[in-house]
Task: inverse folding
C-alpha cells in the first residue's frame, strides 16, 4: 500500500472561543487548588492548636489526679466520681 500524504493545511491555533474556554477552566482549577492549599494550611494550624489544648488537658488531669486521686469529673457540675475502692487523698 502506498502512503498518502495530506497536503491540506492544518490549523495553527484553536479558535478564540476555545482558547477563552480553556483559559477559564484552567483559571477555575488554579483557584480551587489555591483554596485547597489555604484549607490545608488552616487545617495544619488547627491541628497544632488542638495538640496544645490536649497537652494542657493532660497537665490539668495530672494535677487533679495528684490532688484527688483516680477519679472522673462531671464537666457540667464538677461532681467527682471515684473509682471503686478509691478515696480522696485529702
Result:
Amino acid at each position: 500500500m502506498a502512503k498518502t500524504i495530506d497536503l491540506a493545511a492544518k490549523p495553527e491555533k484553536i479558535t478564540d472561543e476555545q482558547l477563552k474556554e480553556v483559559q477559564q477552566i484552567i483559571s477555575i482549577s488554579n483557584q480551587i487548588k489555591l483554596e485547597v492549599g489555604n484549607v490545608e494550611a488552616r487545617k495544619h494550624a488547627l491541628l497544632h492548636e488542638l495538640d496544645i489544648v490536649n497537652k494542657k488537658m493532660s497537665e490539668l488531669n495530672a494535677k487533679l489526679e495528684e490532688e484527688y486521686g483516680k477519679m472522673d469529673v462531671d464537666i457540667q457540675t464538677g461532681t467527682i466520681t471515684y473509682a471503686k475502692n478509691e478515696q480522696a487523698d485529702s
In short: Residues 73 and 80 are 5 Å apart (CA to CA).
